[in-house]
Amino acid sequence: MKTVNTAHQKAWGYLEQCLIDKGLEPDLMLRMVGQIDIAIPSWALGTGGTRFGRFGCGGEPRTLAEKLNDVAVLNRLTRCAGSISLHIPWDKPSHVDDIRDYAQHLGIRIGSVNSNTFQDLGEAQSYKFGSLSHVNRMVREQAVAHNMEVVEIGKALGAETLSLWLADGSSYPGQDDFMGRLDRIKNSLREIYDCLPDNWQMLIEYKPFEPHFYSMCIPDWGTAWLLARECGPRALVLVDLGHHLPNTNIAQIVATLLWKGALGGFHFNDSKYADDDLTVGCLRPYDLYLIFCELTKENTWSTQKRNWMIDASHNLKDPLEDLIQSIENIQIALAKSLCLDRKKLALAQEHNDIALCEQVLLDAYLTDMRPLVAEARLRSGGMANPLSSFRDERIREKLIGERGSQSKASGL
Ligand code: PSV
Ligand code: MN
Asked: Ligand 2 (ion): which residues have CB within 5 A?
């Protein structure tokens, strides 16, 4: 343990000096990296699966209270996972007050509440052919009422954000009237928006395909933004990194949304093909860094109300380990973006010096910022290396568990 700390102190001391030499402010960077707040979705705490199967890893939380416990563990180790986002009805609390009190007791906030009109879960009307855009008024009313119920639950829990992702769309040409769908969706969204408390935001998430393969009603950021504008200023766009066609320039989308004040939140994950829901930054850390370079542009960072969440599926790894890795990779991308010499970049851009532009970007990206991320966590009471600390704790728990059963067997 001592050697880890000494090694960290050496690495941090060296990096701190390099940052100062570059004219950067390490203390400010530490604060920004340490204060990042990444919500954990209630649905990511158990092992995920595909339609072909699911292979549990054991020890998964069975109740919402157990999920809160897991988030508290993540937060204790990283100090930046202080909130949980709930999917209703997947994690609908049976006793809202108890959950609110228990979350408070653990020091965990309720992030966004997410409605679910993409599955039939015993309601009177089926969502097979859509929800807020359905041709049948009764289905639309049911979907609107569900969203309002989600808001009521969220209010009682202290949430301030409703997050909507709609599976509405069509799988065959001619199946739908595109404009009719948009009109109906707009009217339904307005009804929901008009019932939101004044301090709430409504986030509209887009996705180009799946579950439908010909058209999705809200396929892209532009459509999400048009619909948000039809509702009002507290309706904003949510970017899920996996909800783009391959090679889409997400950093540019983020810049465009920031430019219009339209960015409401993020679902972080990574993917090779589409909505793979893999660990954040495991495949395209450079793209993630470029996104953070947009997010941390001076004029937008301080004004951003962030709804940042990890939306990944943990099919092979232990969900908590996977989430720790995702948090780490987000913090690293953020830290690297803070290293960017923006003045030098702006000058190079003015002179159309493309090679230099790229070099400036790379200089920051290639700086090993892990010591700063570790230092930021240590200063806020977390662990320098949360993954290894988590593993150590697990080993200790196991030993204690075995000792417990030994003592029981021996009648102690
Ligand atoms: C849809 O693919 C999505 O990204 C939405 O955010 C849902 O709430 C979530 O995944 C469900 O897993
Ligand atoms: Mn999502």
From this structure: 240, 267, 311
